[in-house]
Amino acid sequence: MRLEKKIAVVTGGASGIGAAICELFAREGARVVVADIDADGGAQTVSSIESDGGDAIFVKTDVSQEDEVSDLVTATLDSYGGVDVLVNDAAAFVFGEVQDVTADDWAKVLGVNVLGAAHTVKNFLPTMSDNGGGSIVNIASISSLIAQPAFVPYNTSKGALLQLTRCLALDLAKYNIRVNCICPGSIYTAGTERHIQFEKIDKAEFLKEASESNFLKRVGEPIEIAYGALFLASDESSFVTGTPLIMDGGFLAQ
Ligand SMILES: NC(=O)c1ccc[n+]([C@@H]2O[C@H](COP(=O)([O-])OP(=O)(O)OC[C@H]3O[C@@H](n4cnc5c(N)ncnc54)[C@H](O)[C@@H]3O)[C@@H](O)[C@H]2O)c1
Predict the structure, then answer these.
(1) Which residue in 154, 175, 188, 227 is the catalytic one?
(2) 87 contacts: CB under 8 Å, gap ≥ 6
(3) Which CATH class is domain 7-185+221-241?
(4) Whose CA is nearest to atom 32 of ligand 1?
(5) Is the pTM of this model over 0.90?
């Protein structure tokens, strides 16, 4: 029960890594607010938590829209009365070389991946600071740290999310709020499936290539990232702030 009595808000909690974080946090005693644009997936996460004996609600939220984030804060306070942990996991997956990327694509990827996190932090800040502090965990990526072919919009957004993490860690330390991010390598999720379908690439080939690119010779699982988020969310990481936790099977170490 490493999050006993804590209230956690997880954006992107309807699927993949976000859903694994919601379920693990609930097993560790947190009451969880699942925030996502996907109502069906969000309901599934809540029902999986409830059937495990946990406590969760779903709030339909597009994090790129600040008025919806403001409603998320209201719903969280109405149901649970505060927030201790905020996980920014929601992401738009927009790829391509710069000449392929439209102004709408840029607005989407930066709107969700960067502004979405800024909106949630800004809107949850008053209640978090009034409650004496908390922990914010942003789900960044190895793409925050390196260039990858034809990944311009996504990597730009994830690089910005890493810098947002560091700047927030500095500015929010005075409120006893720690801000960290996780940089996952290749993790097999619904997001991966969509990427494979969208790019019309061969799934077996993609997974083989992704596996061979790291020391452990496999892709990761959402729960492996959730354990990193649990550490950063809990008081066990009380001296950790402004840091990118790289969880990539050794990909960046080679
Ligand atoms: N899967 C990987 O290999 C991998 C690697 C590195 C980083 N990440 C990061 O991990 C996080 C989760 O990725 P995933 O693979 O689990 O993807 P996923 O597609 O399974 O989950 C992303 C969730 O975000 C939600 N979402 C999208 N736009 C939203 C919006 N505007 N408002 C609210 N919710 C929105 C989606 O509905 C979905 O439920 C993302 O931040 C992603 O960039 C994933």
Answers:
(1) 154
(2) 8, 9, 10, 11, 13, 18, 21, 136, 137, 138, 139, 229, 233
(3) alpha beta
(4) 62
(5) yes
